[in-house]
Amino acid sequence: MAGSLIWISGASSGLGQALAAAIPWEGSRLISISRRAPDGMEHLEADLSDPSSWPRVGASFREEIKETDADRVIFVHAAGTVEPMGFAGEVDDGAYLANVVLNSAAPQVLGHLFLKAAQSIEASRHLIMITSGAAHSTYAGWSSYGAGKAAIDQWVRNVGAEQALRGGVQVMAVAPGTVDTGMQAHLRDTDEADFPKRQKFLDLHQAGKLSDPHEVAAKIWGLLDQDLDNGSVIDLRDLE
Ligand SMILES: NC(=O)c1ccc[n+]([C@@H]2O[C@H](COP(=O)([O-])OP(=O)(O)OC[C@H]3O[C@@H](n4cnc5c(N)ncnc54)[C@H](OP(=O)(O)O)[C@@H]3O)[C@@H](O)[C@H]2O)c1
User: Fold this and answer.
1) How much distance in Å is there from the Cα of 107 to the middle of ligand 1?
2) N or C end of the chain: which has fewer CB within 10 A?
3) Ligand 1 center to residue 210 CA distance, Å?
């Protein structure tokens, strides 16, 4: 067996793109999943806020894993959105629904599909969910974003406990800290009425305190070499 087979959702920009660029193993095959196709990557086009796209992702997991001789199989779920920024009860209904589906439901269902596809192979298998400190800090304007990240954290704890009993896939959630990506630029551009803590992010940016996505990506890949409890929920800032 040789090489790695890796899916990254959200590899078309920001942290997902940096993770794709920083894959530490020679001979890796990467399949990106997002709406936009990143240059030079094998790509599965999917709007993950639409559940009808999920079976195609599941089929990709199933079919590629069945064929692979890779000794490492990984799914990193980095796709996420803060759109629409604003208060529940005020924002657009359709945009709110899309946020809830993408941030809360898609990680659980896609994670389930990956586990099912990967359950009976000998390769080492890893499922990494990108979460956020917003899972447990209060931010007006981020109701469904924070709720989605909290859902990821608890899903990972429970599924990690399951995989420790049987299954053997290493599952973790990783909060990357504040990273210099398009998402951060978008926060800075948002009206303070819709996101009252906006100034905190303007200050972090001005003080040069946003993390470099490539450094963050290298730290995330480095977690796979550590002996972590299955179901760990990690904030990279706690490791500094
Ligand atoms: N930046 C930070 O400070 C920070 C902090 C904590 C956590 N995070 C988390 O890190 C992850 C990456 O965020 P980022 O900062 O890199 O943001 P970003 O630059 O906005 O990237 C978001 C990625 O998610 C994908 N995505 C968004 N909506 C999608 C949809 N409906 N279907 C499929 N893919 C979709 C986008 O691809 P397409 O637009 O091509 O579909 C893009 O590749 C997110 O889960 C975010 O919550 C970021």
Assistant:
1) 13
2) C
3) 16
Q: Which amino acid is at 232?
A: S
Residue of minimum CA distance from atom 26 in ligand 1: 79
Taking CB atoms and a 6 Å cutoff, what residues make up the pocket around ligand 1? 9-10, 12-16, 34-36, 46-49, 78-81, 102, 130, 132, 175-176, 178-179, 181-184
8, 137, 183, 188, best to mutate for ligand 1 pocket (most atoms within 8 Å of CB): 183
Is residue 3 very low, low, confident or very high in pLDDT (cuts 50, 70, 90)?
Answer: very high
CB 39 within 8 A of CB 60: no
- Written as one string, the DSSP assignment of 38-58 is PTTSEEEE--TTSGGGHHHHH
| β-pair type (72-77, 124-130) | parallel
| Predicted local confidence at residue 81, as pLDDT | 98
Distance from the Cα of residue 153 to its chain's centroid: 11
Residue nearest to atom 14 of ligand 1 (CA): 14
CATH 3.40.50.720 fits 4-239, yes or no: yes
Look at ligand 1, atom 47, and give the residue with the nearest C-alpha: 80
Quote the pTM value: 0.98
User: For strand 232-235 and strand 170-175, is the pairing parallel, antiparallel, or unpaired?
Assistant: parallel
